[in-house]
Amino acid sequence: MSNSADQDPRRGLMLVISSPSGAGKTTLARMLMKEFDDVVLSVSATTREPRPNETDGIDYHFKSEADFRRMIAGREFLEWAKVFDRYYGTPRADTVAQLEAGNDVLFDVDWQGADALHDQMPNDCVSVFVLPPSIEALEDRLAAREGSTPDMVARRMRDAQAEILHWRRYDYCIVNDDLEEAYGKLRRILLVERTKRLREHKLEDHVRRLLGEL
């Protein structure tokens, strides 16, 4: 599904989704992109080496550390962070180009990334936090992941507490107890947010025309 050609153009939005690991944000994001072809995933820049199955410009924008630092100095990132001696960031120009083309940009980030994106572009950001139905359910989901170990589960459960503490920072919260129901809520959020006044390009011209007819 996408904007049809006869619809008024709109400015896209930044849909920021966060959750503890295992709560289901990645699955929900994939479902949204499968249904809406004008929802695109933000492509981050990174200084880590590409893996064998990764393509530059699709999975990540792979950068040297010198280039990444130059982009930081030039304020070319909406947000960036250093994780285990590797840099990761969201290029501003890519996001702005997608928004102006009428596409919605999907971000899978933690609460700190969500805060940074909102600070940079508050009128474009819509944030959603995905909560698990219970701590027991979250732990079971993490334990069921391929390659999971007790130490990994314990670490992710500690991280989950830190993430959940920030749920009030978000515009919307969804409890992912039933996947289809949770997706329905996320879908409705997207459709409602698309109709906001700031995203309707032709409203100014329409109102001027109305006033001129009085």
List its traits:
42% helix, 4-stranded mixed β-sheet, Rossmann fold, 8 helices, alpha/beta, 214 residues, single chain, 5-stranded parallel β-sheet, 9 strands
Task: Describe this structure as you would to a colleague.
It is a single chain. This protein is an alpha/beta fold. It has a domain at 14-42 and 103-212: Rossmann fold. Helix content is 42%, strand content 19%. It is built from eight helices and nine strands. It has helices at residues 25-35, 65-73, 92-100, 111-120, 135-143, 150-164, 179-194, 203-212; strands spanning 14-18, 39-41, 45-46, 61-62, 77-83, 86-91, 104-108, 125-131, 172-175. The strands form two sheets. It has a five-stranded parallel beta sheet with strand order 2-7-1-8-9, sandwiched between helices. A four-stranded mixed beta sheet has the order 4-3-6-5. β5 and β6 form a beta hairpin. α5 (135-143) runs antiparallel to α6 (150-164). It is globular. The protein starts with 13 loop residues before the first strand and ends with a helix. The relative contact order is 0.20. The mean pLDDT is 92.
Main β-sheet description: 5 strands, parallel
- Round the Cα radius of gyration to an integer and report it: 19 Å
Question: Can you count the beta strands?
Answer: 9
N→C terminal distance: 38 Å
What is the fold named in CATH at topology level of the domain at 14-42 and 103-212?
Answer: Rossmann fold
Question: What structural class do helix, strand and pairing data support?
Answer: alpha/beta
Morphology: globular
Q: What proportion strand?
A: 15-25%
Helix-residue proportion? 40-55%
Widest sheet, order of strands:
2-7-1-8-9
The name of the CATH architecture of the domain at 14-42 and 103-212 is 3-Layer(aba) Sandwich
Regions with little confidence, pLDDT below 50 for 5+ residues? none
